[in-house]
Design brief:
Layout lengths: L11 H11 L3 H6 L8 E4 L1 H11 L1 H5 L3 E2 L6 E3 L10 H4 L3 E3 L6 H6 L6 E4 L6 H10 L4 E5 L3 H13 L5 E5 L2 H7 L4 E7 L13 H5 L2 H21 E11 L8 H10 L3 E9 L9 E8 L3 H20 L7 E3 L12 E2 L5 H15 L10 E5 L2 E5 L7 H10 L4 E4 L2 E7 L2 E4 L1 H6 L9 E4 L5 H8 L4 E2 L14 E7 L2 E9 L2 E4 L12
Parallel strand pairs: 5-6, 5-8, 6-7, 8-9, 12-16, 19-21
Antiparallel strand pairs: 1-3, 1-4, 2-3, 7-16, 9-11, 10-11, 12-13, 14-15, 15-17, 17-18, 20-23, 21-22, 22-23
């Protein structure tokens, strides 16, 4: 329990607001600020199920307890620091406040759907959606702020998302490009952050009644853009981490008055004095399916967009966020289609030697930015023409992550991307692998994650049938975590420099 002297000093106007809302429950609510805040993590469902037997000791190590409103969520003991464990680096779980896990649980995205996370950074809800999609369908995760979009892209990569595109755009621009395109939309709206007071006392300094009004106005602007992008028959979840009515129920009432084709499916609150969480509000709304209008309007919007694409220069260009080995040049445009098919064929040749289980996705297309090869994902029922249309829709946008990063292409030589390793569920995907154990190979794990080379028969004992010369996948307790390259009984380290650190084991 937090020491009483650390309780944040709350504004009197805020206390009055909560008293009007909660009545006789107000004292219990205010007393919750004396208690230690909650900590949670959410597991990657596919990685967890595949390696559950090996990974179950983690349950006791982190003192995990199930979060009742999220199938993949667990509370953890903050003293165990799971964010410093190699499993975090391998994308087994995402550190997320437990209350925030409720939003995607209620949105309930299904494999194969087209989903938008409109205000997505740092990526908690995006990666939760990706886990529910199971690599099927299409996820576009957007963040308007450039630096936060980079963090979002990093988390999408760490969690091994294969079918996600990260964009850095304002909502209105996206709405112009993707009218009635999404089956489901997650809108975790920027808010006054009243549910963050216990976690981040600095948020208290930013709070005022005027700030609440400003947030509600901004939320309404974003909602109007979101509405334009939802298909008839689609579902949208609106959430905030704040308590006041203006940003929550009153905003939903305004929504329903303005857009009569929407109905409220449910709304739920998590209160820190009632549940084990910092607090969250979620409303789920459904858009009516007007069958007589839907087919015509949807086909019309896609037809117009594809006609526009077909009549334009087919060497579509869109801005790529600066990342990895690319030179920094703000606003510089790249040609994502130049020789992409030829370079992808080189990558396929590489996989025949080092990743024989690789199969070209049934939809989507390869795109190339300078020396970086990506696979632009698309829904499974998209034709090649529709994949081109999707690429065209990204024209002119900043796109920090245009899909799965496959490889660096250096002087006609393929070097596998770190994202490719993290997207794999099992080390058997690679023809050569080093499988380290947290029980027996602590020193070797620390060396690898710190960027050091590994010496065979000195740092690690390996089966010669599992390791061959050249590119080798490194895994920890069955979880792929990066690449190395074997030559002369030494694994040269290719773990990204920006991720190298000392981890706790």
């Amino acid at each position: 329990m937090t020491n009483i002297n650390t309780q944040p000093i709350l504004p009197e106007t805020y206390k009055q607001q909560m008293k009007q809302m909660l009545g006789e429950e107000t004292e219990a609510f205010l007393q919750s600020f004396y208690k230690e805040r909650t900590y949670g993590l959410r597991i990657h469902p596919l990685k967890w199920e595949l390696h559950k037997t090996k990974l179950e000791p983690m349950m006791s190590t982190f003192s995990l307890q199930s979060v009742p409103w999220c199938d993949e969520g667990y509370y953890y003991d903050s003293t165990t620091r799971p964010g410093k464990h190699p499993y975090h680096a391998a994308g087994l779980y995402y550190i997320q406040e437990p209350s925030a896990m409720s939003a995607v649980q209620l949105l309930d995205p299904q494999p194969g759907e087209i989903v938008l996370d409109l205000a997505a950074a740092p990526g908690g809800k995006t990666t939760h959606i990706a886990g529910r999609l199971q690599g099927k369908g299409l996820l576009i995760a957007n963040e308007i702020h450039r630096e936060r979009a980079k963090i979002l892209a990093s988390n999408v990569e760490r969690m091994g998302c294969t079918n996600a595109i990260v964009t850095n755009s304002d909502p209105d621009t996206l709405a112009e490009r993707f009218p009635m395109f999404f089956d489901r939309i997650m809108l975790d709206a920027p808010c006054s952050g009243e549910g963050m007071f216990r976690k981040d006392p600095d948020a208290i300094q930013e709070w005022s009644p005027d700030h609440v009004t400003l947030c509600a106005t901004r939320q309404w602007d974003i909602i109007q853009a979101a509405v334009k992008m939802l298909k008839p028959g689609g579902t949208i979840a609106y959430s905030t981490c704040t308590f006041n009515y203006a940003e929550n129920e009153q905003t939903i009432e305004r929504w329903l008055d303005r857009y009569p084709d929407f109905t409220l499916v449910k709304q739920e609150r998590i209160w820190p004095h009632k549940q084990r969480g910092e607090g969250h509000y979620v409303a789920v709304l459904h858009r009516a399916s007007h069958l007589e209008d839907t087919a015509e309007s949807t086909i019309s919007s896609v037809s117009v967009a594809m006609t526009s694409y077909a009549s334009s220069d087919t060497s579509t260009r869109f801005e790529k966020g600066n990342k990895g080995k690319q030179k920094k040049a703000a606003g510089r445009k790249h040609n994502p289609s130049s020789n992409a098919d030829g370079v992808y064929e080189q990558f396929v040749q590489w996989t025949r030697e080092y990743m024989p289980s690789w199969q070209t996705p049934l939809s989507g297309k390869p795109i190339l930015f300078g020396e970086e090869l990506y696979w632009l994902p698309a829904p499974s029922d998209f034709s090649a023409e529709q994949s081109n249309w999707l690429e065209g829709k990204l024209n002119g946008l900043r796109v920090p992550r245009p899909g799965l990063h496959l490889a660096h292409v250096l002087k006609q030589r393929i070097e596998p991307a770190h994202a490719l390793a993290l997207s794999l569920l099992d080390p058997t995907s690679a023809s050569s692998s080093i499988q380290l154990s947290t029980a027996a190979d602590v020193a070797a794990i620390q060396k690898y994650l710190n960027g050091e080379a590994l010496l065979l028969d000195q740092d690690i004992q390996v089966n010669s049938s599992e390791v061959t010369k050249g590119w080798t996948l490194v895994a920890i307790d069955g979880l792929p975590i990066g690449w190395g390259k074997l030559a002369n009984d030494m694994i040269k380290n290719h773990y990204p420099k920006g991720l190298r650190a000392v981890y706790l084991l």
